[in-house]
Design a protein that fits this description.
By secondary structure, the chain is α/β, with parallel strands linked by helices. 37% of the residues lie in helices and 14% in strands. It has a 7-stranded parallel beta sheet with strand order 3-2-1-4-5-6-7, with helices on both faces. Strands 8-9-10 form a 3-stranded parallel beta sheet, with helices on both faces. It is globular, with a radius of gyration of 22 Å.
């Protein structure tokens, strides 16, 4: 069989989060595939994307299109649809918003790895509008714009031939908003690169992109009351606010190197995960280092944290419940080896094999259907 030509599609390359880690692995799996994306901000994205075949939309060239691409939200559906993907047999989109809406030919197989149905259009739309940094008058018009894009997003989901969900929580969300079934393949985590330490420090750990919805403020308020060491790594718009409310027992270590991060993980008492995530890569990284995770019982944590074996879950998302869970927490009860063994099932090599097998299977099915519908059976 002729080797299929593959194109990758990604939302935007203007940050370095979990979705970008997935794209990075896709590029390793399919090194000849170009990546189509709305904008490419070389200052903010992972350096691994520099030198890759990145093809951007017209928004890249608009005034402030890279730095303030969000202001062009009304143009994004059109920008996505203008990607010309007619030369490809397989399109693999990595989508948390609009990139799944690309137009493909009937002969092309479109597989969408869905990080989530578009949060600001569906599950988080009310909070999204409420937290916008605009005045009341503008906020009154925003829902009307979102209404139009929401209808487009629903139609765009129908263009996908088959969905992959990054967790069972996202699978349910895809079913709810798009009425489509999906195959669950957990995101890749470079679990093999982490290790267990024979000595443990005296601090708890939390970190990542410091944004409001991740609820780092709950950890800060809990440790303000507990008075025990907490280290916070990462950077983001919430940093200033978190520093303003933190007491002296809380240390902000900023953006750290990969080696520094691994040391923080393997020597912490436990890793904190007070937010609801679609999956939660940082929690897996902590477990790959043999450390237990204390997580809010929602989203991906329900699928990755096993109470009593790899960590603990708490039910109410407030600082009092988090603090109470930590007071009752006994880290010596957990086996680092058992925690790490659990995390290895999410390793990158497992992800690559599962995605390769899935793509091969779906492309074979797609080719069979396409050929059987040919008038001459060719």
């Amino acid at each position: 069989m002729k080797k299929p030509r593959i194109a990758l599609v990604h939302e935007h390359l203007a940050q370095d989060g979990g979705a970008e880690k997935v794209l990075k692995v896709f590029q390793e799996m399919f090194p000849e595939a170009p990546t189509y994306t709305l904008v490419f901000d070389k200052r903010k994205t992972n350096r691994a994307f520099l030198g890759k075949d990145i093809r951007t939309s017209f928004i890249q060239k608009l005034p402030f299109g890279v730095r303030h691409y969000q202001m062009y939200l009304p143009l994004m559906p059109s920008a996505v649809e203008q990607f010309n993907l007619g030369d490809y047999d397989i399109v693999l989109s990595s989508s948390s918003a609009l990139s799944k809406g690309v137009l493909t030919l009937p002969e092309t197989l479109h597989i969408c790895y869905c990080h989530s149905p578009t949060r600001y259009l569906w599950s988080d739309t009310h909070r999204y509008v409420q937290e916008l940094p605009y005045n009341r008058l503008i906020k009154k018009f925003v829902p009307m714009l979102l209404n139009r894009i929401r209808m487009w997003d629903r139609l765009a989901a129908e263009r996908v031939d088959t969905f992959i969900a990054n967790s069972y929580a996202i699978r349910r969300r895809i079913q709810k908003y798009y009425q489509r079934d999906s195959q669950v393949i957990y995101p890749p985590v470079d679990a093999q690169s982490f290790s267990i330490s024979p000595t443990i420090g005296n601090y708890y750990l939390i970190g990542g992109r410091l944004v409001a919805y991740k609820r780092y403020d709950l950890a800060v308020m809990a440790f303000n009351r507990l008075g025990i060491p907490l280290k916070i790594f990462g950077d983001g718009p919430e940093l200033k606010n978190l520093k303003s409310i933190a007491k002296s027992n809380i240390e902000f270590v900023g953006k750290v190197s990969p080696d520094e991060l691994k040391k923080l993980y393997r020597e912490c008492v436990a890793f904190l995960h007070p937010q609801e995530e679609d999956f939660g890569i940082t929690a897996i990284e902590a477990m790959a280092s043999g450390r237990p995770v204390i997580a809010y019982a929602a989203g991906g944590a329900l699928e990755t944290v096993i109470p009593g074996k790899t960590g603990e879950l708490f039910d109410d998302q407030n600082w009092e419940t988090l603090a109470d869970t930590i007071v009752r927490f006994h880290p010596e009860q957990y086996s680092p080896e058992e925690i790490r063994a659990h995390a290895l099932q999410f390793d990158t090599e497992v992800f690559k094999k599962r995605v390769h097998d899935f793509v091969d299977q779906k492309y074979a099915e797609h080719s069979t259907i396409r050929n059987s519908s040919h008038p001459y059976g060719a």
